Amino acid sequence: MNELCVVTTGGTIDKIYFDDKSDYQIGEPQIGRMLAELGVAFRFSVIPILRKDSLHLDDADRELIRSAIAAQSAAHVLVTHGTDSMIATARVLASIEGKTIVLTGALSPARFRGSDAEFNIGTAVGAVQCLPHGVYIAMNGRIWDPSKVRKNVEANRFEALEP
What we know:
Layout: E1 3-10, E2 15-17, E3 24-26, H1 31-38, E4 43-52, H2 59-70, E5 76-80, H3 86-93, E6 100-104, H4 117-130, E7 134-139, E8 142-144, E9 149-152, E10 157-160
Parallel strand pairs: 1-4, 1-5, 5-6, 6-7
Antiparallel strand pairs: 2-3, 7-8, 9-10
């Protein structure tokens, strides 16, 4: 991997909460700071595309994400994305050829102590370097085929679809 292209779209990973009413905004992307603090041994660039909760993404947003990734010269792309509609976006990205694309996010904001953000990003960074071209989801310590996974909202985790 010569360089990792990181595309950010918002989601819980970048949320900032303001008060006890759970008001929030999607803040600055956290992944660039996180990778720099961890001292990763590869070059990366961060391209912020959107700052939205994934429940608010529509087809036009997904097309914007798809076209932005397709326009990048990098063959390795990590996408930070909200978990609620990550699978829908992954399916749109499947039309991009010649790239390894891994989507990841967090079930609690990266700014929170005990967040799963760093773990999921670490899993995604490893996956994007090792997997063949295609689109994948890295959540809960696993790498998922977007056509064979679902988010279990009640259990707050990703799991295999029933066959």
